[in-house]
Amino acid sequence: MNIEDKKTALDDDSLLYQKRDDSLGKKDTSNLTRKQKVQYFKDYYLKALLVVIAVLILAGALIYNMFFRHQVDVLHIAFINGAYVSDTDTMQNDLRDYYELTSKDEYISLDYYNLDDYTAQMKLSTFLGARVIDLMVCDEESFAQYSALGCFADLSEILPADVYAQYKDQIVMGHEEETDENFNVIKTYPDKPYGIDITDNAVYRQYGGSEKKSILGIVASTERLENVMKFFTYISDTP
């Protein structure tokens, strides 16, 4: 057989010879059915749109509460991942009594954040940036993560000497890290006493505190230090 005379089964303009274009492209959407357009939107735009909406809602809520609604956050505690209390309602009511709050516009906020949820991550980051959160109760992994980000205050510097001495056996060390633009660690700072292990604390357990190791830290940017100090008195075994 003369191979040169053999005809190919494919024409020169066959799809096999055309340059591949993996993207559907905006120019092609007009030829799609309604169902295909819906699927295209879900694949390429829905996730980004939901993130934008979540950020706008959080920003709007913060602006509204800060400038238009006369609410006062007396204390804001964030519980992270495996560190939480199951009876937040009772704890919130007891803290209101302890802080002697009578106005409906004064709040004790106890919020839980599951960092496996991207929206929860965004909310926590937004609140930390806005200096809304005063205290964080973390499991070991999230404590190390937020220590590395420089979120916590040095307890040896911020707590009164007698209070620090009271919790010296429960002190948990952490360190801050410096990273490059690719998030590679380029510098690790010395360990500092950033947290207190409250796993076996009687008050924490009273409200259904998690059996997983729970570490309490003071957010470095808190603007309600007096109320934070009062909370440390509250969680003493004999408040």
Brief account:
With 239 residues, this protein is of the alpha/beta class.
Identify the strand order in the major beta sheet.
Answer: 2-1-3-8-7-4
Gyration radius over CA: 27 Å
Distance between the termini: 99 Å
What is the molecular shape?
Answer: globular
The CATH class label of the largest domain is Alpha Beta
In the CATH classification, which architecture of the largest domain applies? 3-Layer(aba) Sandwich
Number of domains: 2
Strand content: 15-25%
Features:
alpha/beta; two-stranded antiparallel sheet; six-stranded mixed β-sheet; D-Maltodextrin-Binding Protein, domain 2; 18% strand; 239 residues
Would you kindly provide a written description of the structure presented here, covering whatever features stand out?
- The structure is a single chain.
- The chain has 239 residues and is of the alpha/beta class.
- It folds into two domains: 21-69, no CATH class; 72-234, Periplasmic binding protein-like II (D-Maltodextrin-Binding Protein, domain 2, 3-Layer(aba) Sandwich), CATH 3.40.190.10.
- The protein is 38% helix and 18% strand.
- The protein is built from eight helices and eight strands.
- Strand 1 (72-80), helix 2 (88-98) and strand 2 (106-113) form a beta-alpha-beta unit.
- Helix 1 runs parallel beside helix 3 (118-129).
- The radius of gyration is 27 Å and the shape is globular.
